[in-house]
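Go through the following before class.
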Amino acid sequence: MDPRELRGNIPLQYLAWVAYPLIFVLFASLFCHLVSPQAIGSGIPELKTILRGVVLKEYLTLKAFIAKVIGLTAALGSGMPVGKEGPFVHIASICAAVLSRFMSFFSGVYQNPYCYTDILTVGCAVGVGCCFGTPLGGVLFSIEVTSTYFAVRNYWRGYFAATFSAFIFRVLSVFNKDAVTITALFRTNFRMDFPFDLQELPAFAIIGISCGFLGAFFVYLNRQVVLFMRRPNAMTRFLIKHRLIFPAVVTLVIASLTFPPGFGQFMAGELMPRECINSLFDNFTWTKIWGSPPPVGLGRSAAWLHPDVSVFVVLLLFFVMKFWMSAVATTMPIPSGAFMPVFILGAAFGRLVGEIMATLFPHGIVFDGILYRIIPGGYAVIGAAALTGAVTHTVSTAVICFELTGQISHILPMMVAVILANMVAQGLQPSLYDSIIQVKKLPYLPELGFGHMSQYNIFVENIMVRKVKFISSQSTYREVNTCWTPPHSKPSHWWTQKTP
């Protein structure tokens, strides 16, 4: 189709806007269902279960690798609000598992279950490292997400592998001419001499606390959508029988709402995820340039400046709409993660607070006789780290943000916000990965929350059956009769002893 035919033709534009994501999502769903259903979803919850010693069949096989790679490529190409961090961890873990099986032909050390667990742990770090080009944050994130007890000997292994994976990832982007040189993925240029004032710390704390509640609500909403789809009723039975209807309906609704000439113009619907992050992290104060000619270098950030709608309304609509869209889209039967959609949501929320602060202090904050203006982009970075930390129950998201932006100017407020967000979220909901484990009923023992600390003092002897009755071939009739007499009549209270 000639691109000139789409100009001014709204129906054809809508058809093209909706058709592409529909084709890619349906292909990803059908391909994974036919090749390897284990490739559906994130993969991190299953990996947490495997690292606890549980054997899950077909999750670390070559078929799952093929389905995950091809399905993830189609899912990301659809433009739906899904991420790639979880699938990258799954893919890297499959590579580690296949490599360990291959190396076992030459050395028996990889047949040791402890070594197998170690190499899977390193694979998790590689997955995050090559996903964002963040080796330090990747190792720390993999430890927090997948391991309860981490072997210190794997530190240097994880850093070694993650560093090389991140290096190759960035070098390939240079060779592909996506970048001029090896730099941070979402490089920022915030003021270094005075990035923020101490008077702004309460606003950063509010971002952290708010992100804690929002992160817990995101996990709750995601779980409720999954539980609703699993209820035994006529609609769910129909959707199970016709597996492509649910992803098709979700994709159609999301694509229709984000259509730029339609409702999408009020929520920057034309921006892709990377463009969203780059624009939310920019140095411009949108409330000051709204309604005036766009300055030089504004770029794709102009999508947030609607001539008839306030910047606050656009940011609020984007956050609210993308919030439920991301929670629903991550439940589709395709390879998908939630880290990047939540990261964008946090950046939008932080940017909203930053623009409000810039409006409340239009001339900036005076310190030592010098006037320093508010940087809304810094608030966006802090919001991104806080919300992802709240959803995943990790603190390493702050380190990932440092590596993603290439700046540590906001290290103090970011750590404060991430810690506060974690404190609030952990007291309300499990992490997103533990929530998926509970929904799928995987054999995994989750960590006890703040309200269950007393259960750490419960020992096995407090709940075990001490007086165990048993019968053998030499047992008398009286002994057998005693075993079958209440309260010993339950099979769990007696055993049959076989004698040679």
Notes: The longest helix spans residues 201-229. The first strand starts at residue 365 and ends at 367. The mean pLDDT is 81. The chain has 19 helices and four strands.
